[in-house]
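Lesson 9: reading folded outputs for more than one chain in a single document. The general rule is that every protein is listed as its sequence immediately followed by its structure tokens, and records are never interleaved. Here is the first one.
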Amino acid sequence: MDSELILASAFRFEKERGQLDSFFESRLEDSGLSSKTVEEVAELLTSYIKSHITSETELLSSALFALGKSYDSSHSKLYTEVMKNSQKTNPVACYQAAIALENTGVLVFPEGADVSKPTDFLRDINTYLGEHAL
């Protein structure tokens, strides 16, 4: 999985929600994802995330961003696992998992979050995890 495929995955979810323009469409066509269902795209991302859950790479946070665009609560457990396991190895992925969880309607950051302040957002994430015994 590369950054172009991950970006196209996010566009595929946007297309499903009716948020498509010519730029999105051209990226989808180039990636080959336009013919895949959102479930197939989600499975590609989920598999990647699970196999790289403690990775330090930027692709992990990008994959979480893309999967978060699905707004699908069935991925909540995966987001929580990333939040628990990537705090030290990849704080940005941890942040992106929390944002993806918020996209499903769960409040992790009661006062918002700033990705440039890892101490603050990790504190909020740990508060959320502790309050929900996760």
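And here is the second record, again sequence then tokens.
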Amino acid sequence: MDELMARLDRVELLEAEQAQRVREYDAQIEADPAAREVRSVQRSIKFVLLIVALAAIVVFSSRLWLTSWVGFWIGLYLALLPLYFAPSGVAFGRQHPQRWAILALNITAGWTLVGWVGALVWSLIVSERRKTIVVREVEPGRFVEIKLSGASQKPPPLQSST
């Protein structure tokens, strides 16, 4: 009996340590914007894969598709409809600033593979613009910060003081 209680205590201790490691990992993820973005993309990919798996389960577990071709096509349509709108679901789930445009692309061109993949990629692109700060030395010991709204912008040229 004492051995069983000792084992239970060890299991509880291991579970507590694992829970603490998970909390520390979550805190690190929340502190790092790049890690948060990676986690968001991972969740979006899991969402799409879940929809594909559910569609396959619905289509192939239904007895209706075995009895008639009409039932098969109706089941296939109903099962793949959520997959069709997966890029829009990802965009709305991530609060993408262009989510309505992604939905429009998904509705109008999603029936083509190129349109669907384009909408999915667009919904996974980083939704916030990174601020770039350039520090320049204008005089020895005197520095100036220049804030840019996007990474593609170039800093303004230095003006010479004569």
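What the second record shows: The longest helix spans residues 2-31.
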